Amino acid sequence: MSSDAQPVPAEADRQSPESVDRPVDRPVAGPAGRLAPATPENNRPSAGWALFGSELSVLFRRLRTWAMLLALAAVPVLIAVVVRLAADEGGPGGGPPFLNQITQNGLFVALTGLVVSIPLFLPLTISVVAGDTIAGEAGHGTLRYLLTAPAGRLRLLAVKYGAAVVFCVAAALAIVVAGAVIGTILFGTGPVTLLSGDTIGVGESLVRLLLVAAYVALSLAGLAAIGLFISTLTEVPVGAMATTAVLAVVTQIVGALPQLEWLHPWLFTHYWLSFADLLRQPISWDAFGANALLQGGYIAVFCALAYSRFSTKDVLS
Amino acid sequence: MARTWKRWLPAAVVPAVIAGGVLTGSLQANAAADLPDKTPQQLLEMAAGSDVRELSGTVEQDSALGLPELPQDKPAGEGGQVADALALLTGSHAARVYLDGPDRARLQLFDRFAERDLIRNGAEAWFYSSKKNEAVHLTLPAGKGDSSDGGASPQAEAYTPQRLAEHLLQSITPESKVSVGDDTSVAGRSAYQLVVEPNSTETLVGSMVVAIDAETGLPLNVQIQARGQQEPAFQLGYTKLSLGAPDAGLFDFTPPAGATVTEHAVPQHSPKAEKPQLKGNNDGGAGVRDQVTKHGSGWETVTEVPAAALPDGWADSPLLGQATEAVDGGRLISTSLVNVYLTDDGRVFAGSVPLGQLQAAAEGR
């Protein structure tokens, strides 16, 4: 199966995943056979899921992953404890949105935690995971072993991105769950007042919280795609992580400059804080839809870029 | 490496496809079916005869009046309401509108992490602000229930394009040229465009364009152009619209536990006094209407409000100081559509005319 002589782009397009599924056609130094025998039937689709599973277990067995999730969970806990300690003094309003509702309803701790974490903490942790995807393997010198297993570069990339998205979900859930739990313990729960002034029960408010978590995870998936692409550019994982994190911050700064207003709807951070639309009655899905479109665009573009870059890259480490 | 370029194809194709999708999407949004021709008179009758009283929609307002952007998250307190009112005239705002019959309406004005709601359900009217967690309750006196005459309630409908268009179209004078513009599409509905241009060359208003739904005659979008400005100075229109009765539960409002609830009585003689919760502080404004004098006519009308009709010290607000510039004999709030001239002796002159005419009106007395 030599696709070298295929001149038609459309056909090449269709074939390219297949062609990279073959063992890499470059000479690979090192004990290539060590990984290969374990997965002799890796060309089946199920092999991708096996690889995904092992990637997830690697990700979630790392101390670093848990340290980051714990740090994220600590944000709402910190907020709740501080508000609890200060509540008796009856400080004036101000601070981040939802902060003054916390004392009435513990579930708002989760929302305040999200508002506080979205600008920096969440992007930072996503940058670490996404920037590490390819560059981390390259930096450890394990990338070429991964590629000698007949998993293929496309599949490896998909698995890496999938794991990063799972981390996005985990990160959002860490804040929401920790916030809801600590809020319930310290302040109790009850019917939740939405922004529209209507009141909903605890059950429905938990559904809304999960929706908000899904919204935030979706928002971060775009950043994860950017991080994946940057990660294919370098073999220094720290460089990829830092670049992704800086990009997230710079984009938010650009998003705050009124002089660049025409650009704002195209920035991947544009809808990050618009999850409040899920707290109206009835739910306003406009922001969710617009955000999904925007993030989908970023995911498509940067995954395509990452694929192109990664599949043409000379893997030397 | 003949295959290398093929592997870069996705990186080129995907952005191209997305760009194409965005382009066709925006083209389709503006493309409209070719509607049968109508005369301006027919359009006016169509708009006047529109009887859509049940709808839910999303309204968006954009202003480019040249007013300074105001800080959104200022602490509540003095000047809060003035600032709220001015903030409505800067930047973009989105709101949802629900109408069900003549006396049930709900307006949800979206703020960042907050919302302001106006609910009207028969004789009950509520105003709720989530930022302050405050609710104001009005019980409308019997007989004032019909809002067709402007009503006595917080006007949830006041923010809809149809009410604004009604207001604007009423003010068409013989000094205007009325024509029909290109067919357009608003919120996915085909619409006619009625263009009103002043004959006067002195006024700041360039033109007003009202998009009228081809099917129901409902005004869907209102655009006001200022002279010498490319983008519309003011625009209010639907971005989403569905006709039909909204969920009845939307109009049953119970203030949330913990909210500060204020009861307001509605004065019989002055239905307008309680209305402008949204539009600004009008305390003591009951008599203003009677003391206002008009100079000139048509598009060049200058409205004068004597110092006595205004609350004491209102002009000392630091916010006002920021928004005004010093001119001969007073201060000026200059926007691309309206100029407001505050004389040193406390009178206020406003109109869609250049400063010179305001000063002339002020000196004329």
Which terms would index this structure?
heterodimer; A: 317 residues; mainly alpha; two-stranded antiparallel ribbon; 10 helices; disordered N terminus; B: 365 residues; alpha+beta; outer membrane lipoprotein receptor (LolB), chain A; TATA-Binding Protein; 2 domains; 13-stranded mixed β-sheet; 6-stranded antiparallel β-sheet; 8 helices; 33% strand
What order do the helices and strands come in, and which of them pair?
The complex is a heterodimer of chains A (317) and B (365).
Chain A lengths: L8 H13 L23 H17 L1 H24 L21 H10 L3 H20 L2 H6 L4 H35 L4 E2 L5 E2 L1 H32 L3 H20 L29 H26 L6
Antiparallel strand pairs in A: 1-2
Chain B lengths: L3 H4 L1 H22 L9 H9 L5 E10 L16 H9 L2 E10 L3 E8 L2 E8 L2 E6 L4 E6 L21 H10 L5 E5 L3 E3 L2 E10 L6 E9 L5 E8 L7 E10 L16 E5 L23 H4 L1 E3 L6 E4 L12 H6 L1 E3 L2 E5 L4 E5 L4 E4 L3 H9 L2
Parallel strand pairs in B: 6-13
Antiparallel strand pairs in B: 1-2, 1-12, 2-3, 3-4, 4-5, 5-6, 7-9, 8-9, 9-10, 10-11, 11-12, 14-15, 15-19, 16-17, 17-18, 18-19
Following the backbone from N to C, one meets helices and strands of chain B in this order, namely: HHHEHEEEEEHEEEEEEEHEEHEEEEH
What value does the average pLDDT of chain A take?
Answer: 83
Number of strands of chain B: 19
Strand content of chain A: under 5%
Question: Based on DSSP secondary structure assignment, what is the total number of beta strands of chain A?
Answer: 2
Strand composition percent of chain B? 25-35%
Gyration radius over CA of chain B:
23 Å
